[in-house]
Amino acid sequence: MNIAICGADGAFQDELRQRLFSYCGSRRLPLELFEYTDVRKMEADRRPVDIAFFNELPGPLYGIEAAREFKKRNPRVILIITAEDSKRIDDAFDIKAFRYFEKPVETQRLFASLDCAVKRIDESTVAFVHTHTGEMLRIPAKKIVFVETSGRKTWVVTENAEYSSAFKISQWKKMLRASCFAFPHSSYIVNMRYVESFARSKLTLKYPHGEYEVPVSANRQAEFKLHYLLFNNMHP
Question: What gap in Å lies between CA 178 and CA 123, rounded to an integer?
Fold first, then answer.
């Protein structure tokens, strides 16, 4: 899971960082945490973000103003606003913020909100055009077994069907942000729910209408192994 903090500093940032690592550790979720002093640096990074915390500070580079602009470019991101008081709670609702926290943030409420955010990500749907039929498809993300790019085509394999998509694999990585998805190779996205077995350099997916072997890149083996172990600990 990729979480970003924008505009926080000092003791609050240290505390929020500690709580996010504590949350992901308790839920056995892999965490990539990105921290930015302002939204310009956040936008320049271009790494996909699942949940973004914006600390309410004066100026367009922080808080709700920054969150509004970031949401325009990243409509699927889950926004959480932190502030000293409740004065801008209505503005937060206007930009469809997921939560609004007055500081200090209560750990129990933060963890409960993150549970809801993770559930929303896991239950998301994806929409794309089937290039063979021109039909617009909407599929629950968790039903996708794997995505593979081959030549100029990208194939989306679900439990019972296969589809071709004009989206590049990089676009699919931005859409498939649920904790069950992993990236063992630059040409593949796999759903950990369907991993039957894993060896150092390959994994086997098993689903209702077949099995499929996927390579694991040498430079991604350690990262994928960690994701594999964490996911299996969560879903014994």
Answer: 8
